[in-house]
């Protein structure tokens, strides 16, 4: 079955960097667009970054533009989120996601999430 496993979260000081990883299995990773979302306590889940299946096109949310970068390595079935110049407002659980389409229907798959805490 489809599995997405995130890693790389942790506690970091303001101004620091983290790189999150998400490894997929149970599906053809190289044919799937991938996304990173985050959810802070008491807030709705928000889209942070997206990348097309071949990695040629990326989209980054305005709130993190110029600080976050999304990339992928299809040979490793892994998508990355490089986060630089972190601020306390980036504190959240970060989830990776893929949406698979079948005819006119679709299904979202999520990882378990990885906690990122930005604090001094």
Q: Helicity, in percent?
A: under 10%
What is the count of β-strands? 11
Mean model confidence by pLDDT: 96
Distance between the termini: 40 Å
Which shape, going by the Cα principal axes?
globular
Description:
With 120 residues, the chain is mainly beta. It contains no helices and 11 strands. The chain has strands spanning 3-7, 10-12, 18-25, 34-39, 46-51, 58-60, 68-73, 78-83, 92-102, 105-110, 114-118. The strands form 2 sheets. Strands 2, 4, 5, 6, 9, 10 and 11 form a 7-stranded mixed sheet that branches. It is globular, with a radius of gyration of 14 Å.
Short description:
With 120 residues, the chain is mainly β. The chain contains no helices and eleven strands. The model has no long low-confidence stretch (mean pLDDT 96).
From the structure above, extract its key features:
120 residues; mainly beta; 7-stranded mixed beta sheet; 4-stranded antiparallel beta sheet; 11 strands
SSE inventory with pairings:
Elements: E1 3-7, E2 10-12, E3 18-25, E4 34-39, E5 46-51, E6 58-60, E7 68-73, E8 78-83, E9 92-102, E10 105-110, E11 114-118
């Amino acid at each position: 079955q489809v599995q997405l496993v995130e890693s790389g979260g942790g506690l970091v000081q303001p101004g620091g960097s983290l790189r999150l990883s998400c490894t997929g299995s149970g599906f053809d990773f190289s044919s799937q667009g991938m996304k990173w979302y985050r959810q802070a306590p008491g807030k709705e889940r928000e889209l942070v970054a997206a990348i097309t299946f071949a990695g040629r096109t990326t989209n980054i949310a305005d709130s993190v533009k110029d600080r976050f970068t999304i990339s992928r390595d299809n040979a490793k079935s892994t998508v990355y989120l490089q986060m630089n110049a972190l601020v306390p407002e980036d504190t959240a659980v970060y989830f990776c996601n893929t949406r698979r389409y079948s005819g006119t229907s679709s299904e979202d798959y999520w990882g378990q999430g990885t906690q990122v805490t930005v604090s001094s």
